[in-house]
Specification:
- The protein is an alpha/beta fold and about 350 residues long.
- It folds into two domains: about 120 residues, Rossmann fold (3-Layer(aba) Sandwich), CATH 3.40.50; about 150 residues, Dihydrodipicolinate Reductase, domain 2, CATH 3.30.360.10.
- It is about 30% helix and about 25% strand.
- The protein contains nine helices and 16 strands.
- Helix 5 runs antiparallel to helix 9 and helix 7 packs across helix 9.
- The longest helix has 20 residues.
- The radius of gyration is 23 Å and the shape is elongated.
Length: about 350
Amino acid sequence: MNWALIGYGGMGHWHVRKLQSMPAEFHIKGVYDILPEKNTQAQRDGLHAYATLEALLGDESVELVTIATPNDSHLPLAQAAMEHGKHVICEKPVALSTAELERLIEVSVRTNRIFTVHQNRRWDEDFLIVRKLMRDQTLGNTFCVESRVHGSRGVPGDWRNRKAHGGGMILDWGVHLLDQLLQLTDEDVVSVYCQVTHVTNDEVDDGFKAFLTFQCGLTAEVEVGTSHFISMPRWFVCGQNGTAIVRDWQLHGEIVKVSDWENRDAVPVVTAAGLTKTMAPRTEDTIDTYPLPGVESDVRDFYRNAANAIRGKEAQLVTLAQMLRVMRLMEALFRSANQNEVIRQHI
């Protein structure tokens, strides 16, 4: 399949490298970037650089275009590509509002072009481990999920720290973590509460905490921070029969499950100013510790699915309905933070 790229920045390079590893499936026709130096770099990298955006869109041999540009440019570029007969993969967030996304969906339907968003974090192995634990009910009925990513460098000093370009951590990382959560259960979100931080940046959120409740009673805490010099675990999952922790992207962690429910005696723990039986840890003879399950993942399957969907061979994995749901959830987070209140809405 002939493929072209718009936007030869960091993620643009990433897309090129992935497709260069799939020569039997994709042929890279070329790239275009609004910055001349990026086009020059593409030529140095052995790629064809289109002289103009119009030249790329006018290349009738190109079937599929990936858009890897600042967030505020996704709408006009994706619309133009589809109206020139191209199928489109757009970087996340696919748009800046539900209204923008609905407009793109209308264009996709009208032009009969496949349109999807690069939700690549669905292929992260830490997420796939948590999904497996929940689907297999390894911990019994899961009642709480915590998902976090922490950094200590603030918002990157490019367009991501500008509101006009769709910057901020809800749109940058929240879109990934929320999409992952929505893949863990079929239940609707029924309430949302969110707080944002402006530690290093007054214009956009440089972090947030969101608390979600699903219709089944499952609760989720989602946190992104850019001023954390000690990171909390990537995942913390609680079930009726045990707890799992995934500490980092390197998949360090374990599962602890109850082995003897009948042995309820607890030895009190002495604290600095008292003692407690309620919070006393279980004795070793009443719990078992297990390693995290192994999973295999290849993020190139995202592109394989896009190609197969274009060919009519399989269903699109990242669907228009899923995109809308994530966008509505992000808008609920913004609304909750701005109004400092719980948003009660089925999403």
